[in-house]
Amino acid sequence: MASSSQTTHTQTDKNIWGVITASSVGTLIEWYDFYIFGSLAAMGIIGKQFFPGDNPTAAFLSSLATFAAGFIVRPFGALFFGRLGDLIGRKYTFLVTLLLMGGSTFFIGLIPSYASWGAAAPALVLLLRLLQGLALGGEYGGAATYVAEHAGSNKRGYFTAYIQTTATLGLLMSIGVIILTQLVLRDDKSVNPNAAFEEWGWRIPFLVSIFLIVVSVIIRMKMHESPMFKKVKAEGKTSKNPLKESFANKANLKMVLLSLFGATAGQGVVWYTGQYYALSFMNKTCGIDSAQANEIIMIAIVFVTPFFLVFGALSDRIGRKYIMMAGLLAAMLAYRPIYQKMFDISDLKQKDELVDQTKTTTQAELVKGKKDSLVTTKITKAFEDGTTATLITKVTKFEDTTKKPKEEKSKAVKLSGNDKMMMTFLIFIQIFFVTMVYGPIAAFLVEIFPTKIRYTSMSLPYHIGNGIFGGLTPYIVTRVIEATKTTENPSGDILAGLWYPIGIAALTFIIGMIYLPSRTDKDVMD
Amino acid sequence: MDAIKKILGVVWLVLAPTLVILMIRQFIIEIPDLEKAIADGKKPASEMQSTYIFWIITITIFVPIATGLGLFGYYALQNEYKQIATSSAEL
Fold this sequence. Notes:
Chain A is of the alpha+beta class. Chain A has helices at residues 2-42, 45-50, 56-72, 74-88, 90-108, 114-117, 120-148, 156-185, 195-201, 203-221, 227-234, 242-247, 250-285, 290-304, 306-318, 321-346, 417-438, 441-448, 451-470, 473-483, 499-515, and strands spanning 359-366, 373-382, 388-397, 406-414. Chain A is globular, with a radius of gyration of 24 Å. Chain B contains two helices and no strands. Chain B is 77% helix and 0% strand. Chain A binds chain B through residues 53-55, 57-58, 61-62, 65, 68, 72, 249-255, 257-258, 260-261, 449-451, 464, 468, 472, 475-476, 479, 483, 487, 510-511, 514-517, 519-521, 523, 526, and chain B through 1, 4-5, 8, 12, 30, 42, 44, 46-47, 49-50, 53-54, 57-58, 61, 65, 68-69, 71-72, 75-76, 80-81, 84-91.
């Protein structure tokens, strides 16, 4: 008997690892596809290519609006594909989402810039971005449900935590591919070493996606349908109308609302503040060199990712609720001191400059295909603590002398030694909070809803929480900071925007602590 | 704890429309200020478009979410969260 039981156990473990691998690889690639756009938007490249404007902030906001559009449609994708997943099954539904995501990503890489195609270019980008959002809305709930329905109740948090790592690893992968492409195309002799990447190299990460999708589709084609869904289907108990059963049934709607306001809303803002806004803050507010900012995020992610599994496994022992709530509380208390420290360590005014090492170079050229002239002035400064800064001013003088010359300024600060380590640590802490709130949440959502409407019911609060509350974080935070800018204080209050994630996290914390049960239904067989 | 759940239900019920009203109020305040700043040359004209986009997106998205928060408050006030379902059979 012991031998038979051991064999069955080994087979089950073997099956679950196959299920986790097949689900995670596909979900990881979907996140990668989704985040390439956001990472390039945070670096200002999407804005320059598709949303030109005299005001760089307007271009940045426009690109974030497109970024946000990708998030806003996620709940609709959750409803559409969730319904499909509850009607025809998990396996085929997330094969469709994978193909939709891969196709959209590939085509974004092919769209000519605004300079070549005019308004058609950003319109097409927006359309493809919306398709990406729809696909992502259908993917995650399916993958989490699929893994959870294969896992035993004592390891559900641990096994689904592998799916939870994919969003962060997808971000890591997108940044990694961007850095690699930048390194390959870098020309240190040029005034702007990243000129080739900014001109055309940014398309490569989008185009690479097609190969990843082919591999993932092959893996997923070999997967079997979830045993619980097969059982429900064989018994003729599948839902006739998952949307109606999920949201018109008061008992279920109550749980959908509780999941949203007591868990996923706060989780969404913590995720996007810790990873996405942190990158945007380093690039835009601190002026850190984009390659170094990406490197810092990557190092922090590598070290913190195992904690998704730690907190997923811990939630199997002590419950999901208190781990998630502790993560929310820590985030809302720590954000303002963390971001103040991030700003201080990159603030050149607080550093001692080595004046004798300052170098200035000026280059004048004609703008390609026009008679306008472009004068680029590059000032390189060094500081006592090893920090270097490159300040670039580009002045375009137009052929039409009645037009006012256009001036663009950019700054690239490179931290060294302790400051770089401290910045990495500050990002690490923020993503550590993410692992606390995000690690156990898939198991938590799966356990709240029944099999026949699980895909639909759990996908909606997840994607409203992540897509809307979370995805709009960089957009809202930037907007709030803009609103604080005055003539007397042109930089505005750089920390004012943090009240948005802090407020949402506080609301979720209060609702979660008071209304969420500490124990949810461990039986997901019904 | 049940009493706190019910009392806070009123808070969520009041908070939901308050948030929507505050958003609309901020939108109404911001536009004339911005028009003046653009007329004075303190801000570029493109700022008007981004401001409209921001507020239209934000209000459109958050009105249904605020309605959900209000409904959550209403259920809490009705003591619907006194006993949370611990099995799917109860749903």
